[in-house]
Amino acid sequence: MAMSTMIHNHLPTTLNAGANRVPVICAHQQFVHDHHPKAKLSNSGARLVESLSHLLHLHIEPPSRKNNVPHDQFPNWDLFIEEKHNTPTISPKEVISDKWRDLHGSMDWDNLLDPLHPWLRREIVKYGEFAQATYDSFDFDSFSEYCGSCHYNKNKLFEKLGLDKNGYKVTKYIYAMSHIEMPQWLQRSNVMETWSKDSNWMGYVAVSDDEETRRIGRRDIVVAWRHEWYEDFQRNLEPIGMGDSKVEHGFLSIYASKSESTRYNKSSASEQVMKEVRKLVKFYEGRGEQVSLTITGHSLGGALALLNAYEAAAIFPGLPVSVISFGAPRVGNSAFREELDELGVKTLRVVIKQDLVPRMPGIVFNESLEQFDEITGTLEWIYTHVGTELRLDVSSSPYLKRGFNPLGFHSLETYLHLIDGFLSTNSAFRPDSRRDIALVNKACDMLVDELRIPHFWYQLANKGLVCNQHGRWVKPKRDPEDIPSPIGEACNYALKIEGQESYQIKVV
User: Cross-referenced Gene3D superfamilies, in alphabetical order (predicted)?
Assistant: First the structure.
């Protein structure tokens, strides 16, 4: 059974810290959501949504006439919200160096998820915010000559997004292309010569600084992958590696495609990221340090994270490799899952019960059929999830509306909000959760109206136009240092390692 699903990008990214750009999930190509807060589903669209909910066995709560504010949990709602506004959005950092292997998945997060260990919660949110950064800094404005690139150079990324206190430094940007036809895949300018007609910025590599390394007990290399599109989920499974492992054709195309005629993908996303990881592993292991690799991503980014982990674990036997994904689809067959296990890759899949994307591809033909293996034998053509699941539920939060909201269910900010409030499956939402609740509504309509947070509240001031010295409203020019690298040039940058000698990174 095949299902076509497309995720469109519709809001500009922010020049301010912490804003979000969130995709809209449409359940079918013929069902297009208007993105506007007051948009109404057509009768046919409503029927399709209802059919999908039955097909996927979703429990969709009908929207009530009154928003669902749990006054029994918070009798003085206004006072409670006022106190929230006067609380810091982050907690003091704990030293987790003695427990890092468990938090990194050495025991598959056994006894750490339900109830959720507070140290693990902080780490999951940290990696989720690294994935969110790939949205907040992406230029998808079709009137921009740099549409499809990152707004900032790697040395400014975390500072601009308010992530500089996390203790990591970006060392490399990753670009990707695809050799197969994928509508909505390539973000590029509609009005002028673009920085690249073939490639999009797809993520980055970062590494913990000395202070964070001491806190977490090892030098942590992070790869964060960006999400872009979905269409025709159930493409053919394609072999990967030397065994029976197979993965979805489109995911592999984005990860492995390259062309000498392109500006940014003379090497593939795979080659770019692995070249950087090799440099960092060699450098830090050469200093006698313990090194880990943590790969994160949301939606398609979570799929690319698994492919990246598969490759990295094969190249670096013994290196602790973990994936923390959010709302990710299935990627490959059971042989792919088993090979990841054999390679020692630890995967924590964070999913929201109401989110459609983790149910695809393989809505019907999936790992649930393994119970019939004795009759059918191993089915190499079915899709299978991997790793350990942390399951969240929209209905657990007193701040979120009920009803069917595919955009809100899949938003990474919704995921981070629910993680921040999750204690256990048998506990109420954590009253001392710290993340700013308003972030949930940056690009969707999920928060109850009593919070008085506008729907889809983020947009650039004056929609990105600035007033020049002559009083004319114009598109601003990027700072020269934030313009993607020139055609054909290979620039050498010295990465300053705190207190140590610099080493050269070649940026394509």
Answer: alpha/beta hydrolase
